[in-house]
Design a protein that fits this description.
homodimer; about 350 residues; 13-stranded mixed sheet; Peroxisomal Thiolase, Chain A, domain 1; globular; two-stranded parallel ribbon; 2 domains; alpha/beta
Amino acid sequence: MNNKIGDQTIIFKNEPKIISHYSVVGEKEGNGNFKNYYHYILKDDLFGEKSFEHAERKMLEFAISNSIKGANLKIADIDLLIGGDLLNQIISASFTARHFDRPFLGVYGACSTMAESLAIGATFVDGKYLKNVVCATGTHFSTAERQYRFPLELGNQRPPTSQWTVTGAGSSVLSLNGCGHKIKMATLGKVTDYGIKDVNNMGAAMAPAAMSTLISHFKDTKTTPDDYDLILTGDLGKLGSEILMDLMEHNGYKFGKNYNDCGQMIYNNNQKTFQGGSGCGCSAAVLNSFVLKKMDEGVFKRVLFAATGALLSTLSSQQGDTIPGICHAVVIEKDDKKEN
Amino acid sequence: MNNKIGDQTIIFKNEPKIISHYSVVGEKEGNGNFKNYYHYILKDDLFGEKSFEHAERKMLEFAISNSIKGANLKIADIDLLIGGDLLNQIISASFTARHFDRPFLGVYGACSTMAESLAIGATFVDGKYLKNVVCATGTHFSTAERQYRFPLELGNQRPPTSQWTVTGAGSSVLSLNGCGHKIKMATLGKVTDYGIKDVNNMGAAMAPAAMSTLISHFKDTKTTPDDYDLILTGDLGKLGSEILMDLMEHNGYKFGKNYNDCGQMIYNNNQKTFQGGSGCGCSAAVLNSFVLKKMDEGVFKRVLFAATGALLSTLSSQQGDTIPGICHAVVIEKDDKKEN
């Protein structure tokens, strides 16, 4: 194979670029650590819609539309939309795709969906199958809460290991034409299950998947953690990140200050989210705001974006199953021509 | 773009082959029209498991394992599994992927998932990113029925426009090495919504999506329906197929005897399934048994496999939304070296 190295990593020799990106988040996220980096902050989490589910779709549509505009492209220039979300049958992504009248591939990797979309999208672009591909995903606290946990009206107490589903969406436009940071490679993750059953401790369930993909990535590419300015996991949260650091250290990989986690970073300590953020929208919003902006500024030059997902459903947990996790990683390198 | 023609169609110049395939179905399907074509027919729809959901996973695992064996490959030779299913958060595919310890990409296109998987898988293989890719999907009547409709114990009456979710799974191994029928191109579908709200009439909801993709395919490739020995839609069922034929005729495309539909074909008239079969497992099982076998025999030399999906959820219907549809198509050509 020309474009594969090691066991799980593919190389994008033509260097697809993220030629445009857009992030939209809810009010709570807008008061968090990255308030100065988001493109748009909702004043009302219903976004003028009649249900939170419709608001989730509208955020995704808004992010996609604005990322296309930001690339100076028309909708007709887009060859493919790739996306998914947390709602049953990924209705947010599918219903959103109606509005664009362009080909659509629905994907599902729980909170790893942004990285999965980028890996697939980069393949279509790098292989010159398609010119411009949009990768987008999002979540909404209120839709996830009532689908996975309790009715919102119940105001149920949250356990200390829990995370807070991010209200937000992010969209990236990939192309070989134009300026933007480059997607250099992708490490496709394996489903990993260490037997965790606690649905309020997703970080612990996902950390082994992150470890699996990161170790494979370092081995495949013959790199070390020090080769990256930023190693960013999806949304393990504070506890999950600590578990990951322990697991990595046991395997001989010591993470320094260049490691962080989207879930851990997105809210500030006064926002009572316990372990931090989660949801497809978490890593999508953080990547498409703070991370790419800091790459513009030259603060990060080489980023390993490793989004993680917990692949459970309410039914699998009701039937006593454990929680499998997955993690897909993409390497993004600074475009030296792009400076702010 | 080197590998795109027209608006929605990509070309696989290296001709990825389906080097192995496997189908497993339930007892009812085993009494249907293709009983002599399936690789394995369950004697018990629980497949020895404690729940129908676990049986669905086991079928998928069984189909994947046997397709890998059929290709004379080991699990370690597989670079990627691609799959999805109808259950919330595609737990069947994700949980199944745990057992293989190979990279996994989860996709969701409702009953179009087999074609979506083949289109993505063929891209990875054709572009020489990966060597051997397994595409698999499945469904189970009893899991779909209780997730989407009523408890099984209720024995609810079925409306005449309804379809019957197929208990079955199919798996295809794609590679550039080895013998097998060739995936020549894929037409990636748009989400199409004609405003149908009747959840018991999926054929009507999906027919416009099939029309959209088929017309785009014929335009992109400058072919006509007569250029195919078989044009096979996913699972529009009897009524949906009639609607599609009407819609196509209105657009100047007359379908002859070379058109059929997996849902319409899979059961016989005595099986009381009204409009026929549905579910990801329907087109997956029909493709990976009857269709590829008939290609081996030379009965079909050029097949346009256009699987269709209805992208609703119970929640979207409860909120009064219409039912969007999608259809992805792949062209499969007979490998002249392969004869039975």
